[in-house]
Amino acid sequence: MNIMRINYTNVGIIFSLVVVLYIFYKLSHSSSERNPLPASVTPRTSNKLPTESSIDLKSLASIAKGGLFDVSLRQAQETIEALQKQLAEAEVSRDTVQKKDMETVKRKFSGHKLVHLDLKGAPTKMTFLIQVLPYFKKWGATGLLVEYEDMFPYKAEYEVLQAKNSYSEAEIKQLLETAAANDLIIIPLVQTFGHLEFVLKHKEFAYLRETEHYTNSLCPNNKDSVPMVIELIDQVLALHPGLQWFHIGGDEVWNLKTCPVCLKDARNKSELFVHHMKPILKHLQGKKVTPIMWDDMMRYWPLEYLKELGPLVEPMVWAYRSDLTGYFPPDMWQRYGKAFKKIWAASAFKGATHPWSNFVPIGFHVQNNLYWLDIISKLPSTLEVNGVALTGWSRYDHYATLCELLPAALPSLAFCLGALSEGYMDEELKKVIAKGLGLPETFPLNVERFNSK
Ligand SMILES: *[C@@H]1O[C@H](CO)[C@@H](O)[C@H](O)[C@H]1NC(C)=O
């Protein structure tokens, strides 16, 4: 009897084991067939959790000890608990990241927010431009920084500078009227030293080049150089009555002090730069217009030398990276604080990642603008920031390939202006701006695909 009973029990155990194993086998197979996760949604943490096959192995191992269902249930429960814990942790860390972002960056910027129109590449038709101005205003802009380059209707001996599609005087008046109607100030930009390809490429002006084979820079030792750029400025001023500011460019004078005459000149590069710029700055001051100039040629100048230009100009300090940690010389802001009363900053909303970029990495530019708010909040108290110009480069120079076009960058402009005006960017603000643009709430700001090298 004893033996018989043991035999019956054994048979029962073996039978139920076979049934259970069969069910496990079917379940594990059907679930992996019915629920194939696309690679992109496969949880990264899966290697930390018991996988289906590891559960099976453990189950088999535990068969000898009996209580198979108990063990499986416990394991399932443990798995669920582990997942719940991970989920909770993920939510907590997401919340703290958002809170941290808000705390560190919430710094509304009340100065000017200028939209830079780089018309030296794919200039839009005036009919398009005047239609988007009300949106610039709505998104938070207070003005335009207009770099006409060859799109300005230069006259008389400078008529040759006009591009075939340059704007007419009537079109520029229309731009000014629409800007005024939308409460947007205008600051024209005319290059006066480097980046003058649109002038120096013409045979009439080739004699003013610093380097015979390069068309970018003027020779500061040619007596016609300053009168030439002053004539360009005056023609632009004549079409823009009542200006408060005028931007004279002045960045990236790569070829400074390379021609035979300049090489023999005893003055160093900074001195030649000041020699060329000073009469231009004074000319504008004489017309009661405050000159603005890109700052990069002066970044390493000692304070004593910065003071040469201090009373004459409001520098515009530019930087377009998403992370500006260590970007400027360490003591630059202290020197600028002692040399200048007012400055401008320049961020970017397009055209600052690659010369051939065909896609606007919005998150990158939003970060850049937020980083500027961070810098501005830590500036020496003596330094007043008049405004931020959001640059939108169309090509890196006159001959370069086109980068992102203005129409494709309008969402980026809206998000960057929103970030500057509000002082932060989070999911809620992103949703509001996306909705205003007619984009889905889920619209992603951080698109890396076209941004990576
Ligand atoms: C050029 O000379 C001035 C003094 O006249 C000096 O302050 C400045 O540091 C010099 N710049 C360079 C680049 O050597």
UniProtKB/TrEMBL annotation:
Keywords annotated in UniProt: Coiled coil, Hydrolase, Membrane, Transmembrane, Transmembrane helix
Pfam families membership: Glyco_hydro_20 (PF00728)
Coiled coil residues, start to end: 73-100
GO molecular function: beta-N-acetylhexosaminidase activity
Enzyme Commission number(s): 3.2.1.52
Main EC class the enzyme belongs to: hydrolase
Biased composition (Polar residues): 42-51
Positions of region (Disordered): 31-51
Family per record: Belongs to the glycosyl hydrolase 20 family.
Name under which the protein is recorded: beta-N-acetylhexosaminidase
Organism lineage: Eukaryota, Metazoa, Cnidaria, Anthozoa, Hexacorallia
